[in-house]
Structure formats: C-alpha cells, structure tokens
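#lab-general

N.A. 3:47 PM
ok so I finally got the sequence cleaned up, no stray characters, all 106 residues accounted for. can someone with queue access submit it? mine expired

B.Y. 3:52 PM
send it over

N.A. 3:53 PM
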Amino acid sequence: MLVFLLFVQTIFACMIYGPIAAYLVEAFPARIRYTSLSLPYHIGNGICGGLLPVIGLTLCARTGNICAGLYYPMIVAAVTLVAGSLLLQPGQTELTHRRLTAKLSW
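B.Y. 4:20 PM
back already:
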C-alpha cells in the first residue's frame, strides 16, 4: 500500500513539474533563459525545498506539536501568494516577454 501511495504522489509531482517547465521555457527568450530561469529556480528549490525537512523537524522538536512542521510550507505558500498577487498584474508577463524579445532580437 505504501508503494502505491508513493507512486500516486510521484504522478502528482510529475503533473506539477511538467507544465511548470514548459511554461518557464516559454516565458523567457533563449538568450537569457539559463540565467534568468535556471539559477533562481534551482537556488529557490534548494533552499526552500532542501531545508524543508530540517526546518519542519526543528519546529516539531521545539514545540512538541507534530503538526508544527507544516507551518513552514504554509508560510512560504502564503508569502508567495501575497507577493504574486501584489507584484504581478494581469498581462504583465506577456508585456515583459515582448520587451525582452525586442531588446534581444538581432
């Protein structure tokens, strides 16, 4: 049963990361794609995702509450939602893409 649940979780992860990769490739022109896409993406995943077990277990150990480990991902998700809602305007990605493409075109 545990193997089946891990398999289902892997399918859900693939359903998330496949479209994200396709969207991010389309969002940046090829000349700046590596620097503007890969570096922050991998640093962000390494710091936020890589430290998740350590931070979660530390919160559980310090508070004595087994649900305290969920606070960190919930806070990160809330900050992301607020920052995205405040900083991104409708159509802004399209305009930024057009400006970068125009600047970098030969």
